[in-house]
Amino acid sequence: MIVPQFACRAIINVHLPVHVRKPWGIQGMARPSSDLAAFREIFSKAKNIAIISGAGVSAESGVPTFRGAGGYWRKWQAQDLATPEAFSRNPSRVWEFYHYRREVMLTKNPNPAHLAISECEERLSKQGREVTVITQNIDELHHRAGSKNILELHGSLFKTRCLTCGHETANYKSPICAALEGKGAPDPDTQDAQIPVQQLPRCERTGCHGLLRPAVVWFGETLDSDILTRSEKVLDSCDLCLVVGTSSVVYPAAMFAPQVAARGVPVAEFNMEDTPATLHFKFHFHGPCGTTLPQALRRHETEP
Which of 5, 49, 121, 144 has the fewest CB atoms lying closer than 10 Å? Predict the structure, then answer.
């Protein structure tokens, strides 16, 4: 089973800084292969393919990652705002941040990597083969590309949850509430809007009117147990795993592919750079996912 070490405690969404990343025991391990033909041969025989996707895929659609140098909204990085404590202290600021991200996403489109994954899933499903996307992204670009089998580990920008009644629902309003219209500019000189809490997004269920929050998994929160269980089942049964555009530093998702590799299943990493997990994998394809994935997932000559 995937991530057994988490079975007896809460699954925490933690981003580890460089100086405390787990060493993975990779000393002396060989570099993974970049032989596309060899990957394609394995791909042609795989029946259950798991694709773990991260921020790097969305970045190619122009989606801000808020990670690394320059990854700021105003003077804060995501980990400063995406916490229950930050929302409790200043729900107006946090909603400005998420309103900005929602509005940005409405201007973005799936890129060739998203489309290649979706096309592969549709094509292989007709052959009795299965492709499942396990994504850390909250932007729904996989959905918009046409993928059907998607497990969203960290929730969605376009869902809300009521802090009073707990109701969770899809929400694509633009703006999400009148008070946030025109707010959320990321410029560091922009002053907080300081919107009264009564004017922030509210629950529309009869008799409730509770404060809404984004239905995403914040730093320090537990992952949805149902999504995690379903992800474990996919990863336990897959015979090929792709790791696409993920930095492999956000846990527990960073553990998934190395543990798949540890049981002898081929894992292929598609990324612009090496990650802390790279040396665990059979393949590594360097470059933009929108360039490498379509080549890797195109119809194989042996397919009917």
Answer: 5
